[in-house]
Design a protein that fits this description.
By secondary structure, this protein is of the alpha/beta class. About 30% of the residues lie in helices and about 30% in strands. A hairpin with a 2-residue loop joins strand 6 (about 115-125) and strand 7 (about 125-140).
């Protein structure tokens, strides 16, 4: 499977929407018409429907080994906080760490970092919020931060 092309709104459309709905602040304005993306069975969601976030999460899913990819139910990017939440079908700490590190490397490469990554086991039938007792948390990591 090749990566899906994520359509992008023109800058003028984003600016007009920001002026109309958010007093000129484009942070909450969608940059794509996509609301959810399914890649290899993984639901990919961006809080504010940002094209760059969909592209990053899609790239991570596409580069994962099929065994790891099949473990993921969903990846959610909270656009406001620049953090990620991944929910897994079954819990294995080693696989959760590998998936989290892969997303972390991609975020650092694309955006210089992130404000946190949570990888958790599925809890009940909620595909977007995992089990807090079977979870790993990755602290914010910005490449340009010093020691």
């Amino acid at each position: 499977m090749t990566a899906k092309i994520i359509p992008r709104f023109e800058p003028e459309v984003i600016e007009a929407a920001a002026q109309k709905r958010h007093w000129g602040d484009a942070e909450k304005v969608a940059t794509t018409s996509i609301r959810t993306l399914v890649v290899f069975g993984v639901d990919i969601i961006s809080r504010y429907h940002k094209a760059a976030e969909y592209e990053l999460m899609q790239a991570v899913v596409c580069t994962l080994h099929p065994t790891l990819r099949k473990q993921i139910i969903s990846i959610f990017c909270d656009s406001k906080a620049n953090c990620f939440s991944i929910v897994l079908r079954t819990w294995r700490t080693d696989r959760a760490r590998v998936i989290g590190l892969k997303l972390e490397r991609a975020a650092i490469e694309q955006w210089s970092g992130h404000n946190g990554i949570s990888v958790a086991a599925n809890k009940g039938n909620s595909h977007y919020f995992g089990d807090p007792w079977r979870c790993i948390e990755m602290h914010p990591n910005w490449q340009d931060d010093g020691p």
